[in-house]
Amino acid sequence: MRFIGRRFHAVLDYMAGLLLIAAPWLFGFTSIAAATWVAVIIGVAIIGMSLFTDYEGGVVKEIPMSTHLAIDVFAGLVLAASPWLFGFADQFYGPHLILGILEAGAGLFTVSASQHAQPRRPGRQGSALRGTTH
């Protein structure tokens, strides 16, 4: 069941991206290079993807929402597994695991279709042959 609205998802995207970029300094793991780089790179990627997504928070609107959500799930799983994939789990793993699970969950539980009615385009409301007689 999808219960997260697209507008709220957009806000979450920008907040998560900023949080991930700041996480090494907020949570004190700047001395662990792999943990720092994974958080910063995924944070920058989330913000970049959000700017280019065709949703309420997008600016350029080139990436379809369904693609954005699939990438969210993939990136979340990579982020959650990154302490073990990149070998820093014995030093630090909490924020990566928690934020990764939340990122994947946001991808799974966000409504993909727009919640606003699409405006009708003029000239597409009927047959071109309407009103003609034979």
TrEMBL record:
Annotated region Disordered: the residues are 115-134
Superkingdom, according to UniProt? Bacteria
User: What InterPro entries does the database record attribute to this sequence?
Assistant: SPW (IPR005530)
Q: Which residues form the SPW repeat-containing integral membrane domain?
A: 9-108
Keyword 4Fe-4S appears in the UniProt entry: no
A Pfam family: SPW
Q: Where are the transmembrane segments?
A: 12-28, 34-53, 65-86, 92-111
Q: Does the keyword Transmembrane helix apply?
A: yes
Which residue positions does the secretion signal occupy? Answer: none
- Provide this UniProt record's keywords sorted from A to Z: Membrane, Transmembrane, Transmembrane helix
Question: What name does this protein carry?
Answer: SPW repeat-containing protein
